[in-house]
Amino acid sequence: MADVVFLIGPGGAGKSTVGKLLASRLGCAAIDLDDEFCDRILNIREFITLNGYERYLEENAKLLKTLLEEADACAVFILSSGFLATDIRPDIVEQNRKQVHRAGLSVLLLPSRDYHEALSCIVERQLKRGFGLKRESEVEKFRQRFEQYLPLGDVQIFSMAVPDAIADSIARQLATLRPEDPSPAHGKTSR
Question: Strands 75-78 and 105-110: what pairing?
Fold first, then answer.
């Protein structure tokens, strides 16, 4: 298994919860990119309000580079929902995808392959988070990103199971991948 694992997917997919459980199972640090941004730079909502989403993407990409350089041993990185899939600044998204591919293995989390089922689950989870999010904007965000996420991930998990079961499944699948060749053609698995 690679020393670095990236959890990817939209907000509400369970990346933070599963990421912490997975890190524990693997004996790795759990590093949440959103939390690090808030701790090191500024609250994300405030930053975007002051500087715009494009600047946020730029700073978030720089932050991941810094975090990768600082990581001592194995780490599970929980990536921001728009880090690998957004309609703004496709150049940054492409650079982010290359960086993730070079640095480790990625695990896509989605509740379902079915668009409508996944949409319903994600939007409901997002609205329950207490961030004052609006249904219409969450639906639109998911609509824009769903197709972009589908081909991503060395491991793909489509599940609404409890987080412990998902973390166990990821750990088992990661253990079967060869660290010297983490390319999707040689390692993509799904549940």
Answer: unpaired
Q: What is the pLDDT of residues 92-102, one digit of tens each?
A: 999 999 999 99
Confidence band for 72, pLDDT divided at 50, 70 and 90: confident
Q: How many residues does the chain have?
A: 191
Residue from 103, 91, 139 nearest 8 by CA: 103
d(CA 95, CA 140): 24
Q: Is 104 exposed, middle or buried (0-12, 13-18, 19+ CB in 10 A)?
A: buried
Q: Which two tokens stand for residue 32?
A: 């949440």
**What HEC string does 146-187 produce?**
HHHHCCCCCEEEECCCCHHHHHHHHHHHHHHCCCCCCCHHHH
Q: Are 5 and 28 in contact (CB under 8 A)?
A: yes
Model confidence, pTM = 0.88
Residue pair 131/165 in contact (Cβ under 8 Å)? The answer is: no
Q: What is the mean pLDDT of the chain?
A: 90
* Under 8 Å between Cβ of 140 and 153: no
